[in-house]
Amino acid sequence: MATCVHTSRAEPTKNCDSDRSQSDHNHYRYMNYCRPSFSDLVPCAPISQINQKPVNSKEFVADSEDDLWSKMVKEAKSDVEQEPILSNFYYNSILSHKCFEKALANHLAAKLSFSSLNSNTLFDLFLSVLIENREIMKDVKEDLRAVRERDPACISYVQCFLNFKGFLACQAHRIGHKLWSQGRKILALMIQNRVSEVFAVDIHPGAKIGRGILFDHATGVVIGETAVIGNNVSILHNVTLGGTGKTCGDRHPKIGDGVLIGAGTCVLGNVKIGDGAKIGAGSVVLKEVPPRTTAVGNPARLIGGKENPIRLDKIPSFTMDHTSHITQWFDVPMF
């Protein structure tokens, strides 16, 4: 059984949904919710399948070999059981695809497309980058696990994939950064602009970002061209990793592994935030922060003092603990 969509979309190819066998279709209960009374519905492939160039199946990892993707498919089927009204959305976004790469390329293309640059064109572009650069997909999966493990609001992998704009903005940046590094700067800047418009996250395509990244809420995050972010970093909303003015060259912060940056923080200039450091919410950081220390305030100062700062015994980006030690900054209790 084929899915149903309106004929107002792009014309279907003759071989609809070629990635799926007939037996696969019969397994999906959500297909029963296509109403036959609609005269303008025809069987066709999701947008990612239309006018798609043939891809060697060996370039993808089978569902049974990719545990994370298998979990996402299972979660998607469960969600559709609970909310049949979302069946077509889940089919186009997850269940019609045989691998993570295609689903991600399709979902980002649907989010970032506009009248002058359609989703099919973006899908082909995004998929080609993901296929040719396998390290990106490793980073994507580590980001997905990071959100699921660290964000208490994340109830499933598939919900992060579909609805968490911080995760999606980060993955769009990974694609844009690869294009930037290949000299395709005009295209990379266009993707940056669309990500900023759609997700309210502005990351210059020149910025270098590690894996296992959590952009929690993400609204208002701004990251400059020469910024570098290490692995397993957690960043809250309204964080700026920016410059100090019109200085050219290497002018943006360098964030170490395992760092936690609280909401509303500004880190300005080519300063280093050491591995495992914590920056309190609303801080303005203008100088280096040593590893495993806590900085808070405007301008930010180290908890415990510069000469003998309190050392953190746990990685703050993992614990997501925003308050330990910070209350010691105040002369009187907060409550």
UniProtKB/TrEMBL annotation:
<dbReference type="InterPro" id="IPR053376">
    <property type="entry name" value="Serine_acetyltransferase"/>
</dbReference>
<feature type="region of interest" description="Disordered">
    <location>
        <begin position="1"/>
        <end position="22"/>
    </location>
</feature>
<dbReference type="Pfam" id="PF14602">
    <property type="entry name" value="Hexapep_2"/>
</dbReference>
<dbReference type="GO" id="GO:0009001">
    <property type="term" value="F:serine O-acetyltransferase activity"/>
</dbReference>
<dbReference type="InterPro" id="IPR011004">
    <property type="entry name" value="Trimer_LpxA-like_sf"/>
</dbReference>
<dbReference type="Pfam" id="PF00132">
    <property type="entry name" value="Hexapep"/>
</dbReference>
<dbReference type="GO" id="GO:0005829">
    <property type="term" value="C:cytosol"/>
</dbReference>
<keyword id="KW-0028">Amino-acid biosynthesis</keyword>
<dbReference type="InterPro" id="IPR042122">
    <property type="entry name" value="Ser_AcTrfase_N_sf"/>
</dbReference>
<comment type="similarity">
    <text>Belongs to the transferase hexapeptide repeat family.</text>
</comment>
<dbReference type="InterPro" id="IPR018357">
    <property type="entry name" value="Hexapep_transf_CS"/>
</dbReference>
<feature type="compositionally biased region" description="Basic and acidic residues">
    <location>
        <begin position="8"/>
        <end position="22"/>
    </location>
</feature>
<keyword id="KW-0808">Transferase</keyword>
<dbReference type="GO" id="GO:0006535">
    <property type="term" value="P:cysteine biosynthetic process from serine"/>
</dbReference>
<feature type="domain" description="Serine acetyltransferase N-terminal">
    <location>
        <begin position="68"/>
        <end position="172"/>
    </location>
</feature>
<keyword id="KW-0012">Acyltransferase</keyword>
<protein>
    <recommendedName>
        <fullName>serine O-acetyltransferase</fullName>
        <ecNumber>2.3.1.30</ecNumber>
    </recommendedName>
</protein>
<dbReference type="InterPro" id="IPR010493">
    <property type="entry name" value="Ser_AcTrfase_N"/>
</dbReference>
<dbReference type="InterPro" id="IPR001451">
    <property type="entry name" value="Hexapep"/>
</dbReference>
<dbReference type="Pfam" id="PF06426">
    <property type="entry name" value="SATase_N"/>
</dbReference>
<comment type="pathway">
    <text>Amino-acid biosynthesis; L-cysteine biosynthesis; L-cysteine from L-serine: step 1/2.</text>
</comment>
<dbReference type="InterPro" id="IPR005881">
    <property type="entry name" value="Ser_O-AcTrfase"/>
</dbReference>
<dbReference type="InterPro" id="IPR045304">
    <property type="entry name" value="LbH_SAT"/>
</dbReference>
